[in-house]
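Researcher: Let's walk through a ligand-bound prediction step by step. First, I give you the protein sequence. Second, the SMILES string for molybdenum atom. Third, you return the three-dimensional complex as structure tokens. Ready?
Model: Ready.
Researcher: Here are steps one and two:
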Amino acid sequence: MADNDTTKDVNSFFAADPEKADREFFGRVPNPDRRGFLKRTGLATMAAMVGTSIPFHRNMPIGFVPAAMASEDVLVGKDGLTLLNDRPVNAETPPELLDDAITPTSRHFVRNNGIPPENTDAEGWELTIDGFVDTPMTLTIEDLKSKFEVVTRALTLECGGNGRGFFNPPAKGNQWTYGAVGCSEWTGVRLKDVLEAAGVQSNVVYTAHYGADTHLSGDPEKLPISRGMPIAKAMTEEVLIAFEMNGAPLHPLNGAPLRLVVPGWPASTAQKWLTRIELRDVVHDGPKMTGKAYRVPNRPVAPGEKVATEDFVIIERMPVKSLVTFPANGADVGMETEVRGHAWSG
Ligand SMILES: Nc1nc2c(c(=O)[nH]1)N[C@H]1C(S)=C(S)[C@@H](COP(=O)(O)O)O[C@H]1N2
Ligand SMILES: [Mo]
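Model: Step three, the predicted complex:
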């Protein structure tokens, strides 16, 4: 059927601009259930690229099927999550599966901005601490475990976009509903202890975090995301460099083998597949730090009101929220029933 050139065409079409490619093939339906329903015109576009007609997507050659249709394999080790996107993988947890006090790893949501690294072996993984420090350091996970106090904490991670699916007017991006939040038990060392060992210089105002995932475009020069936080937050007791989640190594989709956990702040600051922390004398300006990414108006505004870019500030503490996890939404219950859930805040 398709020769290699056409296969490359479609793949590069998806690689160059996945959102545009998705729109072409699936239409602009911000709906997690759209998978499998290829638009008629999308089918035609794809058929034109293959040079033959395609009655059913299951007849398309492997490697040619858009990532969007290969959704069965992208959530290995996760259980019951709703897939919002599979390039990059984004999946949220239905509220009734967040009933436990400690979120099981299989139910912790996944928010990827790029493509996770293929090699997530703890063996040989290195973390570099540099920038304005007295002693730049490169540490293995064994170094972290042997040189610093290892602590275990139940910490809440919530995506800054959680709940965005209900915004009116609609917001761009993954249409998260309730479940881009989790509270697992994380084991690792305090970021503070590691930074103190490196020696934080007096001019430091901000951290910059780097991970081993790659940009959707495949361009090695581009980073999918690199965020940071004020040094004062980085030096608090509860910010961890974690290598375990619920008593086992991190799940590959949740940043194995090493990640930051920054509780109470948008989880975008909690860099996964962590390879480097740089201390800066200015606020970090990496991808997803500037413009409107993870920034909010500096005052309450009406929904949809235009706000000047210079009036946006970086999101820090997340607001107070709560979620009913039992009974399940829409469940048939008696006249009297117990209701449970969680509340959390930044
Ligand atoms: N390296 C890297 N770290 C990352 C991201 C990413 O795409 N790449 N996504 C961030 C965002 S936006 C969120 S909400 C959390 C999600 O963590 P989880 O996937 O473990 O739930 O990871 C953060 N850390
Ligand atoms: Mo996020």
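Researcher: And what stands out?
Model: The first helix runs from residue 4 to 16. Residues 108-114, 157, 159, 211, 213, 224-225, 254-255, 267-268, 270-273 surround MTE (ligand 1) (CB under 6 Å).
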